[in-house]
Amino acid sequence: MLGQDLYLYESISLQLRRHIEGGSYRPGQRLPSVRSLSRLFNTSVNTIIQCLRQLEQENYIEIRARSGTFVAACPPAITTGAAEFEFLPVEISLSDDILHYMEPHHQLDLIHLGIALPDPQLMPMERIMNTLRDITRKQPLDVWDYTHPKGHQRFTLQLARRSLHYPNPISQDDVIITNGCMEAIDLALRTVTQPGDTVAVESPTYYGTLLALEVLRRKVLEIPTSPSHGICLTTLELAFKHRRVSACLVSPNAQNPLGFTMSEENKQKLVELATHYNIPIIENDVWGDTLYSDGAMPAKAYDHAGMVLYCHSFSKSLIPGIRLGWVAPGRFHHRLRELKLVSSITTASAPQLLLARLMESGFYAQHLVSLRQQLAAQADQVRQAVLEWFPPGTSVQQPSGGCVLWVVLPAHMNSHSLFEEALQSGIHIFPGSVFSPGQQYAHCLRLNVGKPVNSAVLQAVRRLGEIARRAGQPHGGADL
To answer: Helices in 22-176 by DSSP H: which ranges?
Structure first.
């Protein structure tokens, strides 16, 4: 009997490996439940659990508490050699869908769970406005005049000082002020790539990244990305080694939409790969200031060779309306500065003076402490509500920062239909399909948790759960 159990155990493990290696289950995709596999193979639950534990030790799968079992972002089947590197660059055509899903954000009568943005209630509005009024009254000529294209010195000095604890601090002379993080990313893309070039991105990735690449006529190479560890560095190295891409655009801290933060070791490895293969990294760190725990640095901190074009803004951490961002482009500074001059010459003076004042006084740092605590609490509250009210089999990634939750619905569901019905119920969400050029995330959605959790928010989440439950019954079986 023991021999039969061992044979069955090994046979099931082998079959699951072959399905993963053959592409039946792609990186990041959920496997059937333990009970479904037990029924499928006509064996005990304990035997299936043993199989899954072995596959986890072999790095084929990831077992996530309360979420299920998923194919690893970088299983051995992908890492065995260049011949098995089958990921192909694709063109993007998502702009119409993205604009359609963004449009309801401007309707005031909705519960806004779509656009990723902390609520104004979490921001020190009175302090911001009082400081801005004081600046315009006491420094009218500074506000009126053009500032230097590189930025106001008081502001760039504060930005540089934030990096003093980095292994490779950012120089004040390397900073260029932009109109938000998206202009920084746009300038960075135009600096290091040309129309027709391919850019490596995380999968899933922020839809704004895909929109920018589409408008600039760049192609995309999606790299498998783990909700726990970030972009698969082994697969990325294959893309670098075989010159599949001209650049890589990533968000190592509080990535949108998955919410993970890469380990410092992996950030350092990412920069080492870029340096070794001479392929630039564009780092989108727009959520970096909202990390719930201290200690994490951007990948730029490890950039001794200037290969990282670091992009950041204050839109998510303080005030989006002033459109204030910045970029530290390293060795690509001269070309990016030329493009900035052609694009918008300079960035408004008043916002820079405002942030300089708030940073000089230490107020901005104090504000971040309370903001992070509030966002962490809101994310946890909404996550628990989703797990309680959404269909069985729903999983929700625990974010490390920011204000979004990545919700994975049962595989047969379609979040576009959920978007349309939710909108009729006065709720705005964002379907997962626009976070990739393909359709592999059509059963996912992203929820904004930037609003303080009150009865209206909880009722909206519960209503979403009701809609999702009604959308269709789970699969009766789990075919491999």
So the answer is: 34-41, 45-57, 76-79, 95-102, 125-138, 140-144, 153-161
